Amino acid sequence: MHDVATLLGAAAVAHLLARTWGVPPTPLLLIAGLAAARVLHLTDAFLEDAVVLGASFLLFTGGLELSARRVGRQGSAAFRVGTSQFAALGLLGFLTGGALGYDPLEASYLALALTASSTLVGIRLLKRRRQMFEPFGRLVLGVLLLQDLLVLTAIPIVLALAMGDRAGWTGAAGVALLGALTWAARRWVGPQLARVEDEPELILLAALTLLFAFLGIGAGMGIPLVVGAFLAGVALSSFPVDGMVRSVVTPISDFFAAIFFTALGALVVTPALPQIAHAALLTVGVIVITVPLVTVLAIRSGLSTRPAVEAGLMLAQTSELSLALGLTGMLAGHIRPEVFTVIALVTVGTMLLTPVLSTDRVALALAHRIPQRSPEDAVALHDHVLILGAGSTGSLLLEDLILADCRLVVVDDDPSLAARLREAGIQVVRGNASDPRILAAACAREARLIISTLHHPRDVETLLKMVESVPVLVRVFDEPEAQWMRARGAEPILFHRASAHGLLEWAREESAELDRRQKDRLPTAPEGEPPRDGAPQPASAG
User: CB within 10 Å: which end of the chain, N or C, has fewer?
Assistant: First the structure.
């Protein structure tokens, strides 16, 4: 109980300081764990169990988010990007590990620790920025899913190198068995849970039962517990089961996330200068290789420059699987604690850098440095309506404008959406709506009206500098953005107000329709007879 109280107290202090100072809690949790282990006595066995249990819940929650259906049309692009990044970073880790003096087994662990990007970081950023279903968001999800599966498949190979062929074959059989159980649970368990959506206690018990069943099978087959935890999450990742399970598991997962990072900080050996230097070198290598590699492959797969850069920046970190893999190797005696410290420093460092690097400002700065191809879809129109972004909101506008017989031009960077619009007879200029050449190709200066439904409203800044007399309507999400637009001559449309207005209009229309139907159903009394019960009474002439 002493260890539990100490760890919880350290985590609580770290979260309180993070809230007070307005900084991310993860580094403070690690520092709190490191300080607690140095000041107070914490047993290694307790810390190891806390890290494994915390990582299991983290990966279970991450697995809930990774449904192959969310990848959509970006599947082939995700395969090319994911396998190329996996191979490039694995080669970087192995060669760098050998050059730094690690033995082949330690270099293999280091290589595998660098290969996968963080599901936890990637999904949180996509959700926070409302980009889960944008083309590059689907690409990122596909890459995360593929890389996690590749790491899980590669773990038995590393075990075979360390413990012999028998252990490797046993581990491979365990992964295959859990994979089959994952498929079975998605097919039969998920539909059963969907029938009890109004019983959260039952959903929680079923989800935890499945999680610990997978953990037990994995432990019995000699594979890391986190493999079973991740696949248990994937087993429940189909819609709508994922949302139901996530709503009841998230509070528990957040609790264990704090425990995980605090216990991890307590386990990490105080890094010496060589470990810090090695971690810094590998951190730079992960970022320098990932960003240009993913950007180039994403552009070749059909994304325009800025979304491709955003995908590269969002994938430029190592995974929580890396921490679990490194801890497993250290506990098994395959790697030294110093090697685990290097893995932990690289993982935490790249996780902390990703939100800083993957900002709009950095993405735009890098995108402007990449040579741009001339637009291939230029139009020659005037007095047309120009739509920037044809997502869900833009598609609804298109329907109304088509019915109004307007001449339309759409600018969007989603290749599959552009193809569907062209099939429907709508002129499309595919590309980044903040690129002046794309806007010129869409004849923005000659448009009668420009409507922007872009996810980043301030991407219209280039447009506003180009056009002077053309009215520009911009969807915005809050009042500060609306003020920013008005100051630059655009007319902001607050999204929540437009949605509320639409809801009220629908309610009024439905009410009027119900009143009409009610009147149509009322019987009419024959002439000269008093009205029947329920019929409206005539007004007195009095």
Answer: C
Token pair 């100051």: residue: 487
Contact 452, 473 (CB under 8 A): yes
Q: In degrees, to the nearest 5, what angle opens at C-alpha 307 toward C-alphas 305 and 309?
A: 70
Question: What per-residue string of b and e applies to 396-406 under the rule 16 or more CB within 10 Å gives b?
Answer: ebbeebeeeee
Which residue, among 471, 417, 424, has the nearest Cα to 444 in the 3D structure?
Answer: 471
Q: Which residues contact 355 (CB under 8 A, 6 or more apart)?
A: 24, 121, 125
Whether 319 contacts 117, CB under 8 Å: yes
The predicted structure's pLDDT at residue 522: 55
Q: How is residue 359 written in tokens? A: 């900002």
Q: How far is the C-alpha of 321 from the C-alpha of 56, rounded, in Å?
A: 10
| pLDDT at site 11 | 87
Q: d(Cα 386, Cα 384) in Å, to the nearest integer? A: 6
Counting as low any pLDDT under 50, the low residues of the chain are 499-500, 502-504, 506, 532-542
| Predicted local confidence at residue 114, as pLDDT | 93
H helix runs in 100-131, sequence order: 104-115, 119-128
pLDDT of residue 133: 75
**CA pair distance 473, 454, nearest whole angstrom:** 11
- The predicted pLDDT at position 148 comes to 84
**Distance (Å, rounded) from C-alpha 39 to C-alpha 523?**
86
CA 495 from centre of chain: 22
DSSP string, 200-241: HHHHHHHHHHHHHHHHHHHHHTTS-HHHHHHHHHHHT-STTH
Stated as kind and residue range, the H or E segment containing 180 is helix 165-184
Q: Are 52 and 327 in contact (CB under 8 A)?
A: yes
Distance from C-alpha of 159 to C-alpha of 227, rounded to nearest angstrom? 13
Two structure tokens written together for 502: 């639409």
Q: Which DSSP letter does residue 198 get?
A: T
What domains are defined for the chain?
43-369 (1.20.1530.20), 385-498 (3.40.50.720)
Give, rounded to a whole angstrom, the gap between the first and last alpha carbons of the chain. 87
Question: What CA–CA distances, in Å, run from 542 to 525, 530, 538?
Answer: 22, 18, 12
Residues 6 or more apart whose CB falls under 8 angstroms from that of 340 comprise 268, 269, 326, 327, 329, 330
Residue-level pLDDT at 538: 44
Q: Identify the pLDDT of residue 540.
A: 41
- Residue among 114, 147, 105 nearest 279 (CA): 114
Dihedral in degrees, nearest 10, Cα atoms 226, 227, 233, 238: 160
Helix-strand-coil split of the chain, %, nearest 5: 70, 5, 25
Amino acid, res. 7: L
So what's the pLDDT on residue 93?
Answer: 93
Q: What is the pLDDT of residue 510?
A: 54
Non-local (6+) Cβ contacts of 66 within 8 A are 119, 141, 144, 145, 148, 233, 234, 237
